[in-house]
Write a structure and sequence with these properties.
It is a single chain. This protein is α/β, with parallel strands linked by helices. The chain has 3 domains: about 10-70 and about 100-175 and about 260-330, 3-Layer(bba) Sandwich (FAD/NAD(P)-binding domain), CATH 3.50.50.60; about 175-255, D-Amino Acid Oxidase, Chain A, domain 2, CATH 3.30.9.10; about 335-385, no CATH class. Helices cover about 30% and strands about 30% of the residues. The chain has helices spanning about 20-30, 100-115, 165, 230-240, 290-310, 315-340, 345-355, 360-365, 375-385; strands at about 10-15, 35, 50-55, 70, 75-80, 80-90, 95-100, 115-120, 125-130, 135-140, 145-155, 175-185, 195, 205-210, 215-220, 250-255, 275. The strands form 3 sheets. Strands 1, 2, 8, 9, 10, 11 and 17 form a 7-stranded mixed beta sheet that branches. Helix 1 links the parallel strand 1 and strand 2. The structure holds flavin-adenine dinucleotide. Flavin-adenine dinucleotide binds near residues 14, 51, 156, 181 and 294. InterPro entries: FAD/NAD-bd_sf (IPR036188), Geranylgeranyl_Rdtase_fam (IPR011777), Geranylgeranyl_reductase (IPR050407).
């Protein structure tokens, strides 16, 4: 199927996180010559709660269960560790907790089995057009300069992406959530319950996800660049899990969140470039769900690139349009909900989450059964007019 000149891959994928590895798998399985380039040594750890809708299995022909750490069937919400609401998730095992070091390495392995070439310790520094192909100026192990070539490039370099905005893809000034993640190794009291705590964090929330041998805990703020006082929050949260207030290894981070519809494919001089995952600012601005859009965009990017490389000039526009319909439409409502909810979180909790049907709706959103558009207008009206 490939018609690239010698030394030129069909597609280079920059970044082997969930988005890049998913794209590389589908591109290689579609018969293309794929170079998957990753700055880190693999397997690498990645601060992430690892909560993921089980419906993501539908994107892959291989079994994802080797990457699944635990299966969640209940979600528990609290306000200042009190006033709890519990929702039983719909369907069979709809929400999984994955370990990112395992999931990402597993997806890469599947991409390699499908024929992709995987290079670790290679950081792509810039992209330049050279005739019909892209030249990737890169640094390999020990800082060695490398020049790689491909007809198309999938930019999957995560929330710190330097390449996306430089080539006019995604927002020119991305918006960020501030996060602190904590991994605690301990005995887990309720391994099938995910917890969301809303009252302790200004403009955000904390999550506690059980995994094998411990918890993935996080603190996130979603409005402004207002770092949560994570140590103070954790010193209250951790004892509620029977853990010492200073337990765990803490890692601060920034997460690009969805902030409007933007082209996710390059045009004119940038033809042949696509952006996926966090680099495309796809992460949910209300609940920080980024794995689902990372995997969906990786798969959809591959589905668009295969016909584009075979001569269908409209296929990459189709990728931006499809992501807008399949993900962006729901996120536009998620952003509006976040802006109202996190400004009046106590009211939001009482009127938005403590309603009899609300936890179930949130669970359906997390499991991918519903989008924010299905609930948004009623939720926003309730929060703005503060009535039940
Ligand atoms: C604390 C925290 C908790 C989270 N919890 C959840 C959760 O429970 N559920 C959920 O759905 N989402 C969660 N998210 C969001 C989720 O982690 C991200 O949305 C997801 O990792 C996006 O995947 P990605 O492949 O786009 O980017 P990444 O996973 O960040 O992968 C990008 C890859 O690109 C590589 N790279 C970067 N620059 C270069 C370069 N120049 N050259 C080559 N390689 C490069 C990086 O090393 C990395 O491996 C969380 C995020 C944070 C910060």
């Amino acid at each position: 199927m490939t018609s690239s000149p010698a030394g030129v891959a069909d597609v280079a994928v920059v970044g082997a996180g969930a988005a890049g590895a998913a794209a590389a798998f589908h591109l290689a399985a579609g018969g293309l010559e794929v170079l998957l380039l990753e700055r880190a040594s693999f397997p690498r750890s990645k601060p992430c709660g690892g909560g993921m809708a089980a419906s993501m299995q539908g994107l892959f022909p291989f079994d994802l269960s080797p990457a699944v750490d635990s299966v969640i069937d209940q979600v528990r919400f609290t306000w200042c560790l009190d006033d709890p609401v519990t929702a039983v998730l719909p369907g069979d095992s709809p929400f999984w907790i994955v370990r990112r070091s395992v999931l990402d390495a597993y997806l890469v392995e599947q991409a390699q089995t499908a024929g992709a070439t995987f290079l670790t310790d290679v950081a792509v520094e810039s992209l330049q057009r050279a005739g019909d192909c892209w030249q990737l100026q890169s640094r390999g192990p020990e800082g060695k300069a490398l020049q790689l070539k491909a007809r198309a490039v999938v930019i999957a370099d995560g929330s710190g992406s330097l390449l996306a905005a430089r080539h006019g893809l995604g927002p020119s000034q991305p918006r960020y959530a501030e996060t602190v993640s904590v991994e605690v190794d301990c005995e887990v009291s309720d391994p099938s319950t995910a917890r969301f705590e809303f009252g302790l964090v200004r403009h955000g929330f904390c999550w506690t996800f059980p995994r094998k041998g411990g918890y993935s805990i996080g603190v996130g703020t979603f409005i402004g660049r207002d770092p949560a006082n994570a140590d103070a929050v954790l010193s209250q949260l951790l004892p509620s899990l029977s853990l010492p207030p200073l337990a765990g290894v803490r890692q601060p981070g920034c997460l690009r969140i969805w902030d409007g519809h933007h082209p996710l494919h390059g045009q004119g001089a940038n033809a042949g470039l696509l952006v996926v995952g966090d680099a495309a600012s796809l992460c949910d601005p209300f609940l920080a769900e980024g794995l689902r859009p990372a995997l969906i965009s990786g798969c959809r990017a591959a589905e668009a690139l295969i016909p584009w490389l075979a001569g269908d000039s409209q296929a990459l526009v189709g990728y931006s349009n499809r992501m807008r319909a399949e993900w962006g439409a729901s996120m536009a409502w998620g952003k509006r909900i976040a802006q109202v909810f996190y400004r009046v979180p106590r009211v939001g909790y009482q009127l938005g989450i403590k309603r009899p049907t609300a936890p179930q709706r949130i669970a359906q959103i997390l499991s991918g059964e519903m989008g924010y558009g299905d609930i948004a207008q009623r939720v926003i009206r309730r929060l703005l007019f503060q009535r039940n």
